[in-house]
Amino acid sequence: MFLHTYDRKKAQWYLKRDLAKLLENKNGGRAIQLLFDAKGNGHREGDYMIEDRKNICVGCGGDQQLTLHHVVPEMYRQWMPLVIKSKSSRDLLLLCKHCHDAYEQKAIQLKKDCVKRFGIPLEGEGWIYLPEHRRAKKAANALIRSSDKIPLHRQKELTETILNFWQKEKISESEKSDGNTKEEAWKNILQSCSELVDHYKGPDFVEHGKKAIQILTERTEYNDKNQEIWPDLEAFIKEWRQHFLDYLQPKYLSELWTIEGDIYTR
Ligand SMILES: [Zn+2]
Fold it and tell me: Which of 52, 152, 182, 212 is positioned for an S-S bond with 118, CB 3.0–4.6 A?
């Protein structure tokens, strides 16, 4: 199917969404070729993906401070099989900052539910913690931020915690520089301690989203074209779509956008 570029706006719309490619002929004329069969099995005529849409928030219709919202959070989407995550523009919707922030408050509940479901905290698992670094860091931050509000005896304890850590780690050797007054040296120690790394990702570290998607793609089935499909992952994507509809209650979302809309891009 070819569209001539006299319908320039329409042509740009298809090109931007990778739904068409630009063709140039010998005479310098231009046309686009649609990369889908408008009447075939892929995107049906009247389908959401080829519908013209306005640049407004699907929640309230506003046109200020618009952001692209991933209906399935990026922390999950990034680990999905390519046939799902590539061109998943169906699940990419325009929201204004207000609607986005309001919905994120609700989305955190579903994410917390996923913590139990997949048995892994949102910050991932496999962190290595350094308790002594953490103690020294907390002490330094307390002294830097609010030493005037801390009783003297407590200030002394915090100072000892820092100095003990400093001596034990023998960091002082490299930090000493000539001409520093005692006060300057102490300030440097405080500053260095407040910036200490107190935890890092260990060799077995796993992201929350990665583990979730691994679990959701464990069960593989095949469709009638013998292509891989993942029923549990499909259900998870539809769950997020449903959650988005239930909690954001978008008043300006196309009626063609449905929970059952395509998940795979093949
Ligand atoms: Zn809005």
Answer: 212
The answer to whether residue 137 sits within a structural domain is: yes
* 147 shares a domain with 195: yes
Distances (CA, A) of 33 to 22, 23, 69, 154: 6, 7, 29, 74
Distance 98 CA to ligand 1 centre (A): 6
C-alpha 61 to ligand 1 mean position (Å): 6
Residue 150 falls inside a structural domain: yes
- Quote the ligand 1 centre to 253 CA distance (angstroms): 11
Look up the domain containing 85 and give its range.
55-124+209-248
Whole-model pTM? 0.70
Instruction: Give me the tens of pLDDT residue by residue for the chain, a chain 266 residues long.
Output: 454 444 677 777 777 777 777 776 666 666 777 666 554 444 554 577 766 777 899 999 999 999 999 999 999 999 999 999 876 778 999 999 999 999 999 999 999 999 999 999 999 999 999 999 999 999 999 999 987 889 999 999 999 999 999 988 865 555 555 556 888 888 989 999 999 999 999 999 999 999 999 999 999 999 999 999 999 999 999 999 999 999 999 999 998 899 998 899 87
Q: How far is the CA of 247 from the centre of ligand 1 (A)?
A: 13
**C-alpha–C-alpha distance, residues 94 and 116, integer Å:** 30
In a domain, 254, yes or no: no
Among residues 251, 259, 208, 244, the alpha carbon closest in space to that of 102 is found at 244
- Is the same domain home to 190 and 59? no
Cα(97) to ligand 1 centroid in Å equals 7
